[in-house]
Amino acid sequence: MAPFDVFSCSDQVEEKRLRPFRRSQVLHRWLYTIGFADHTWTVDVDLSDEDGAAELYRDGLLHARGELPVAFAVPGGRVEVDAGLYGVTRAHLVRDDGEERRLTPARGTAEDLRGRLARRHPLLSTAIAWLAIAVLAVNLVLAVPQALELLTTIPKIADNVGTFTSPVVLPMWLNISLITAGALAATERVLTLRRNRVLDVETLWTGL
């Protein structure tokens, strides 16, 4: 996980109200919220913005804005936010005593819908989660060596580390299938804010 520099919130931010979430924004906008220190804090990450910054709202009014990854200072702690290719990978309140609380996805977001599925159909949810793990594990074994071979064809990289020949050679249709399945599996992991340092390295390949 990337280090978080604590961003001190300033009162010198523009007066701006939190926009309602629309279903048409489900692929590029993420909202997470939490009640803490007598206020409702909402994180808004919209990758359709040019800078892709995160915004922190206090009771519906803009409180601070910062580039990802960012940690917003709040009374009694901080709100840590980070995002990747497939969405928000971290949205946690870290109290001064070290206790962490995950923010709750706002109603109507893809993360909220995924959470409802987990509550209503826990067995199905568990099966989907394990299927995502299996797909990423297979891709880690089959696709990543090919990604390394591709990277070492870049002259500057080849000059420093040499070339690499993948022991795995797959037909194009299977490569495309693996990339598609990997992207879906990575999205599933992000929707539930799950991350593993080894397993989720594979998501770098699906983004190539």
Give an overview in words:
- The protein is an alpha+beta fold and 208 residues long.
- Helix content is 34%, strand content 27%.
- It is built from six helices and ten strands; from the N terminus they run E-E-E-E-E-E-E-E-E-E-H-H-H-H-H-H.
- The strands form two sheets. Strands 1-6-7-8-9 form a five-stranded mixed beta sheet. A five-stranded antiparallel beta sheet has the order 5-4-3-2-10.
- The longest helix has 21 residues.
- The C terminus is likely disordered.
Structure summary:
By secondary structure, the protein is an alpha+beta fold.
Fill in the keyword field for this structure.
34% helix, alpha+beta
Count of discrete structural domains: 2
The shape is: globular
Would you tell me the overall average pLDDT?
81
What strand order characterises the main sheet?
Answer: 1-6-7-8-9
Task: Write the SSE topology.
Layout: E1 6-7, E2 29-36, E3 39-46, E4 54-58, E5 61-66, E6 70-74, E7 77-84, E8 87-95, E9 100-102, E10 104-105, H1 110-120, H2 122-142, H3 144-151, H4 155-161, H5 172-191, H6 203-206
Parallel strand pairs: 1-6
Antiparallel strand pairs: 2-3, 2-10, 3-4, 4-5, 6-7, 7-8, 8-9
